Amino acid sequence: MDETQQAAVAQMKEITNCNEDTAMDYLFRTNFDVEIAVRHFFEGTIPATMRDERTPTASTPSSSVTALPSPTEERTSSTSSTSRPGPVLPRYHSLIQFLAEFFTLPVRLPLIMLNYVYNYFFGVSTPVYAHIFDYLSKEFPQYDANKKSVFYKHQLQSLRNDLPTKNWKWLVAYIHDPNGSPDFLHSLFVSNFAEQVRTRGGVFFGCVMGSPDAAKLRPDSVFGRKRKSCVIVFVIKATSLTRKLMIEDLSNSQAVATNIDLALIDLITDEADRILRSREQNEARRLMEEQNREYQESLQRDMERIAKSKSEEEAAKRAQEEEERKQKETENRVEKVEKYKKSLLEDDTPSTGAHDLLIRFPTGKKVIKFNGDDSIEKIFQEALKSEMCPLFFQMHQSFPKKAVPCLPQWYFEILTLEELEPKEECLSNQSTFEQSGITHGSMVYIDNL
């Protein structure tokens, strides 16, 4: 074997993790084309030139997914379990092989027909067992007492009902060929292989080649053309099975058990790593959510504080504006009274009338003239006309003590708006001096508000 072939064998072993004999077997039949050999290895197909006397020994990992049977398939499994295996179409890997098969067909056709007729009338058909317990009861009745402690007691479709309660993670399936060697089957009853699978969190399932369960667990084409026993390891996810490992060389049962146990340990480690990563991701997500929640709460508090501060500022601003408005209105009212008083002061015409009235201010006094039919508001005008009169005031008499109703409406409203609390009796009622009881020689007092 030259260096190129040795490199191809090493590359094949590195990619597929198979032994040297298997690598040589595939490469020899593919003219040492590594790509074609690897594709056949992982697809489970046999190259066209493969010899029947060679038996590859390989542990073939795969990523194919097998769905667990539905309840509908349960009803049809009993009827399909007794049917014959379907024909397998030939696969031609070269044009020369196809032409050789085609041109020799007239010679081979009579032999094919004779063989078919003989097998149909005189041949003995291989029985198809729906469950491995049926096969053991007929072929190996000595294992009837122990078969339930080794294999899962129902068909594959019953796994769906048991998954929620059993919490299995792996399915180790043994597909037995009735025409092959029963050595590995015998070893299952004298070893702790099944118990070893269960301690790893898996379930050990057995079926017979040709059964519906076997077709579901290994539906690839090589299974139909090259019938041989095998052990397959699946990962159970929900209601589907993902194939992870397949071992076809069952000649050394101890090696098979070791390889299966190592594979389960690797799967358990991967599952533990996945759970750890998921836990770390969940913890990181929780911390992120907690930080986000704290940030949102802090942001909400800041927004409330800003809103409160803004509200207080707006309230202070409104209060200030209201104060300024009131001050402006007060100034306007004072200005109005001052203008009115100024207009009265500019009129230097003395009061006229037949009667005298004494007005006493807080700082002085003044005598005015009036007639009995003059309006009582004349007192207000004459009082405001004096420099001694305050801007805001009201009047009263002493004998008898009573308010003088001489304040005009507009002036009374100003006193009210200024919150000086003027007496209602001081509001002008449009009466005359005579009607108000003010006669000659009367005296009124100015009350400074």
What can you see in these coordinates?
This protein has 449 residues and is α+β, with helices and mostly antiparallel strands. It has three domains: 1-56, Helicase, Ruva Protein, domain 3; 59-82 and 94-276, 3-Layer(aba) Sandwich (Glutaredoxin); 355-448, Roll (Ubiquitin-like (UB roll)), CATH 3.10.20. It contains 17 helices and ten strands. It has helices at 3-16, 20-29, 34-43, 71-80, 95-103, 105-121, 132-139, 147-150, 159-166, 183-190, 193-199, 212-217, 221-225, 253-346, 378-384, 409-417, 433-436, and strands at 65-67, 170-176, 202-208, 230-237, 240-247, 355-361, 364-370, 393-398, 401-403, 442-448. The chain has a five-stranded mixed β-sheet with strand order 1-5-4-2-3. It has a five-stranded mixed β-sheet with strand order 7-6-10-8-9, covered by helices on one side. β4 (230-237) and β5 (240-247) form a beta hairpin. α1 (3-16) packs across α2 (20-29) and α2 crosses α3 (34-43). The radius of gyration is 58 Å and the shape is rod-shaped. The relative contact order is 0.07.
